[in-house]
């Protein structure tokens, strides 16, 4: 009977081992005709790259792209830190690049393999978060923009400060993002959107508490639905959300708030230990081709930093200030920055504000 | 029907053919062994990792670093976090209570329906939940919103003149939670009521007990294990659930589930997130142990 | 007279609950025929989403992954859980209360913590992420539900019947199959259905333990949220619903005829 037991255990382990082996990614067969690998594991934000573009790359280079998605920087970080080189290419917001580089989670890029880098707008490269673009190449960006439906809102809205008007009771939808929303409140108070002074943050908390009655819902996923349904008439949400809502309700109007906007860009980075680095760089280069970049912009209307591609994007999109703030606005936008340990304080304030009711 | 694979080894043992006590030891190994091994490897081991992390310090980039500290536990003793815990408990309690009140008669009716229909009726309870929860929640939003189906019908019928605010408030959150958790109440109840011996109920009424009396004195006590199982399976997950409150309530409250999620996915404060989860688990463990100790006596008596 | 009134009320009450359960499902089905891409406003009738669904290999592939993971993990979880429930009912052993309490922990542990800690474990052990890790994780979070439901069914079950069977010469295995199983079968079925439901809908834990090429359907759907989950998913849900119901009714018909 011992024998029987052993057999079962052995069979069990065998099954486990086989399943595990079967699931591990097949070893990369190096050196195709173009010096690229046969496989590429891409980890991107959800809804950020059309399937058609991936298919084109696969066809042109004979590479199989395994594409999976995440919905926050932190989710991406958790999986990339688990290591094992499971991903060859991922995308990180600009304020995430320094922390990742400092922890050795990303590898320097070889810009020589990305000649299309030259297509990017000079103002949007070589930024503070990654001097010389050692680790990252900008992909797309967006602001958190303000919009309202003038059919149902009679009071004027020209600034963030107007959101506190009592007429707007239960009329606002906002992204559920503590950095952007508290940043907006800080800007309303005349501080930087990245302020970490506890006294200023206390002030912001009190101000935010007063705003709560006007907020009907926080929604980061699909706030446009509430605008389209008529559930709310004011939105402080991702720019592209406003553009999409306008497709159903053209009367929705974007406001450039007096206080100025906050912006964030996403960037390609290569996780440390990536098994197909060169192929990843070829993929980045491919996505920076003007036609390809314009194709992405058509499906996903974010700020496209690709000057060459912009020539191919329709005028209507380029002129939509919810997506592309005008140049004078772009000069004063504030980028979201890594605030280190102050994030604890932000989080506590956010919890307190939300638990106030 | 699934058990044979492992269990068959037991029967192939020569020793097993002689009935009686010694054989039982193998039974113990084969029944308790798998779960012990499985849960130790895939649940306890990761849990120990989390326990470890809860004593570290958040590094300024959001990783973990030394020194070891209990600061993360001390931090939780803050009126704010207690309030969050309290709100979560109240919400979970109401969800459980409503599920029980709605679900008990329903499970009873299904369990007492003609035997030919029972399986189908039971399956009909669970089948809606094989659709995606996100799509299902969106469907609820279509039903409940200001210009939604329910408001439109009520206004057409002239029952109301102004649309009712059905969405983005506590009622909506409760509807969403009760809807999602109802099968977790009904199925254990069904399994427990279905085995009720009808003759006991008949005996009770033959002895002149009123139906209400029979229910309180016979039916309810006999189905108590089902009630407890259902209540636990509703209460405990409701404590940590945040996805439905967020979508249907408009994310305007922080529940304990949100708090913990935020530590991992926004603040990148894994030590505090881990400590909060350990505290939540510790509290639940306290509840459960109390429940087990209380019911133990009862079960013992019943078995006599 | 009183009996029939009670009966009528029973049917009425059960219908109300079924209405509650199926109301959103009706909307879900309705919107699979909606022209608008957004799950928000009704704009007109179309079959387009069914056509698009059939061409969307990613979604179909994700559904296949989900079904495989759900079936295997339900089978395994039901097996492990039922055995444990029977063992805990039948035997007394040291640490039983501890095991009992421990089994509730996976139910209460926030999904994100379970997901991240499992990811850490797999990373430590260098287990590659993929089907195996997905199934292992799903078994882990389903098992406690099975144990709780089956134990509730077993509670109050007369041990002397089992003992009588054994005294009459039945092996423990025979006793289990011939005596215990029939009694707890409805409990096993109920718990298996819960496990299947849990597995089919899990997002958070799956996110952390899925490999680069093993997305489940809920993962796929959640990745579509930002630009609107297209009614293709409604169409898929509708088809799944119709197929499940058809199989169930067909199987029951056959069973009834046999009887």
UniProtKB/TrEMBL annotation, chain B:
Q: Which InterPro entries match?
A: MetI-like (IPR000515), MetI-like_sf (IPR035906)
Polar residues compositional bias, start-end: 8-20
Q: In its UniProt record, which GO terms are filed under biological process?
A: transmembrane transport
The Gene Ontology CC terms held by the record are: plasma membrane
Record keyword Methyltransferase present: no
Q: Where is this region: Disordered?
A: 1-21
User: Which key words are in the record?
Assistant: Cell membrane, Membrane, Transmembrane, Transmembrane helix, Transport
CDD domains recorded for this chain? Answer: TM_PBP2 (cd06261)
Q: Describe the location of the ABC transmembrane type-1 domain by residue ranges.
A: 85-291
User: Where do the TM regions start and end?
Assistant: 35-56, 84-108, 120-141, 172-193, 214-244, 272-294
Where in the cell? Answer: Cell membrane
- Its topology with respect to the membrane? Multi-pass membrane protein
**Source organism superkingdom:** Bacteria
The record's comment on protein family reads:
Belongs to the binding-protein-dependent transport system permease family. CysTW subfamily.
Protein name in the entry: Spermidine/putrescine ABC transporter permease PotB
Species the sequence originates in? Brevibacillus borstelensis AK1
Source species taxonomy: Bacteria, Bacillati, Bacillota, Bacilli, Bacillales
């Amino acid at each position: 009977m011992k024998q029987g037991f052993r057999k079962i255990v052995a069979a069990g382990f065998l099954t486990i081992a086989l399943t595990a082996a079967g699931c591990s990614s097949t070893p990369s067969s190096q050196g195709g005709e173009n010096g690229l690998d046969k496989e590429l594991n891409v980890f991107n934000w959800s809804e950020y790259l059309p399937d058609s573009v991936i298919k084109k790359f696969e066809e042109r280079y004979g590479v199989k792209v395994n594409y999976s998605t995440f919905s926050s920087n932190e989710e991406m970080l958790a999986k990339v830190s688990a290591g094992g080189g499971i991903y060859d290419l991922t995308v990180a917001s600009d304020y995430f690049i320094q922390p990742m580089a400092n922890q050795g989670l990303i590898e320097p890029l070889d810009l020589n393999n990305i000649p299309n880098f030259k297509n990017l707008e000079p103002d949007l490269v070589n930024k503070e978060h990654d001097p010389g673009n050692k680790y990252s190449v900008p992909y797309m960006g967006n602001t958190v923009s303000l919009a309202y439906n003038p059919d149902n809102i009679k009071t004027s809205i020209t600034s963030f400060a107007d959101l506190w008007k009592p007429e707007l009771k239960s009329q606002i939808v906002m992204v559920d993002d503590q950095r952007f929303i508290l940043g907006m409140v800080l800007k309303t108070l005349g501080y930087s959107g990245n302020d970490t002074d506890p006294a200023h943050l206390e002030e912001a908390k009190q101000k935010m508490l007063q705003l709560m009655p006007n907020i009907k819902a926080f929604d980061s996923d699909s706030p446009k639905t509430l605008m389209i349904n008529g559930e709310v008439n004011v939105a402080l949400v991702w720019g592209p959300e406003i553009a999409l809502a306008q497709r159903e309700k053209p009367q929705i109007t974007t406001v450039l708030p007096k206080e100025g906007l906050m912006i964030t860009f996403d960037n390609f980075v290569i996780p440390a230990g990536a098994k197909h680095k060169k192929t990843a760089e070829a993929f980045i280069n491919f996505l920076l081709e003007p036609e390809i970049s314009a194709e992405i912009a058509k499906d996903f209307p974010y700020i496209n930093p690709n000057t060459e591609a912009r020539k191919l994007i329709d005028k209507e999109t380029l002129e939509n200030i919810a997506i592309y703030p005008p140049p004078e606005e772009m000069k004063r936008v504030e980028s979201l920055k890594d605030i280190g340990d102050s994030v604890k304080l932000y989080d506590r304030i956010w919890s307190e504000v939300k638990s106030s009711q | 029907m699934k058990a044979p694979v492992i269990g068959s080894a037991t029967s192939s043992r020569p020793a097993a053919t002689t009935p009686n006590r010694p054989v039982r030891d193998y039974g113990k190994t084969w029944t308790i062994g798998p779960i012990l091994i499985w849960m130790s490897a895939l649940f306890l081991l990761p849990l120990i990792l989390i326990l470890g992390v809860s004593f570290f310090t958040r590094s300024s980039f959001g990783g973990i670093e030394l020194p070891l500290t209990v600061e993360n536990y001390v931090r939780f003793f803050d009126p704010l976090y207690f309030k969050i815990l309290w709100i979560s408990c109240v919400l979970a309690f109401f969800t459980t209570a409503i599920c029980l009140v709605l679900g008990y008669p329903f499970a009873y009716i299904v369990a007492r329906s003609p035997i030919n229909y029972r399986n189908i009726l039971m399956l009909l309870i669970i089948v809606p939940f094989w659709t995606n929860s996100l799509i299902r929640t969106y469907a609820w939003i279509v039903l409940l919103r200001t210009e939604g189906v329910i408001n439109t019908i009520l206004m057409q019928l002239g029952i109301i003149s102004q649309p009712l605010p059905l969405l983005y408030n506590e009622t909506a959150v409760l509807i969403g939670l009760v809807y999602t958790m109802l099968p977790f109440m009904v199925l254990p109840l069904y399994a427990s009521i279905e085995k009720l011996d009808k003759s006991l109920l008949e005996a009770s009424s033959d002895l002149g007990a009123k139906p209400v009396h029979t229910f309180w004195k016979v039916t309810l006590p006999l189905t108590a294990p089902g009630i407890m199982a259902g209540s636990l399976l509703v209460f405990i997950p409701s404590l940590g659930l945040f996805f439905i409150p967020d979508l249907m309530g408009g994310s305007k409250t922080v529940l304990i589930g949100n708090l913990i999620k935020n530590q991992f996915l926004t603040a990148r404060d894994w030590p505090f997130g881990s400590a909060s989860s350990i505290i939540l688990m510790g509290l639940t463990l306290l509840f459960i142990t109390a429940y087990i100790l209380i019911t133990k006596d009862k079960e013992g008596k019943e078995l006599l | 007279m009183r009996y029939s009134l009670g009966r009528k009320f029973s049917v009425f009450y059960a219908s109300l609950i079924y209405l509650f359960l199926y109301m959103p499902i009706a909307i879900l089905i309705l919107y699979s025929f909606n022209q608008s891409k957004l799950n928000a406003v009704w704009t007109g009738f179309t079959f387009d989403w069914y056509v698009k669904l059939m061409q969307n290999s990613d979604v179909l592939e994700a559904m296949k992954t989900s079904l495989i993971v759900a079936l295997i993990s339900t089978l395994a979880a039901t097996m492990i859980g039922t055995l444990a429930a029977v063992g805990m009912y039948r035997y007394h052993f040291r640490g039983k209360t501890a095991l009992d309490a421990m089994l509730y922990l996976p139910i209460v542990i926030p999904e994100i913590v379970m997901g991240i800690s499992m990811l850490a474990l797999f990373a430590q052990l260098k287990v590659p992420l993929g089907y195996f890790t997905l199934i292992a994780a799903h078994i882990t979070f389903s098992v406690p539900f099975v144990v709780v439901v089956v134990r509730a069914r077993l509670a109050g079950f007369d041990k002397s019947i089992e003992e009588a069977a054994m005294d009459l010469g039945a092996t423990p295995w025979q006793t289990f199959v011939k005596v215990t199983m029939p009694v707890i079968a409805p409990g096993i079925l109920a718990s298996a259905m819960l496990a299947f439901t849990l597995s089919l809908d899990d997002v958070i834990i799956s996110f952390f333990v899925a490999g680069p090429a093993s997305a489940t359907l809920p993962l796929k759907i959640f990745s579509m949220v930002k630009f609107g989950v297209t009614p293709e998913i409604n169409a898929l849900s509708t088809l799944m619903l119709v197929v499940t119901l058809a199989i169930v009714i067909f199987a029951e018909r056959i069973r009834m005829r046999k009887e």
